[in-house]
Amino acid sequence: RWQAKENPMDKREIFSSILEILTPILVAGLTFLSAWLAKLITAKVKGEYLRGVLVRLDEAVFTAVKSVAQTYADALKSAREDGKLEPAERQEAKRRALNALKSYLGTKGIGELGRILGLASANQVEEFLAGKVEAAVHDLNLVKSGGEASPLAVVPAGA
Question: What pTM value is reported for the model?
Answer without folding.
Answer: 0.66
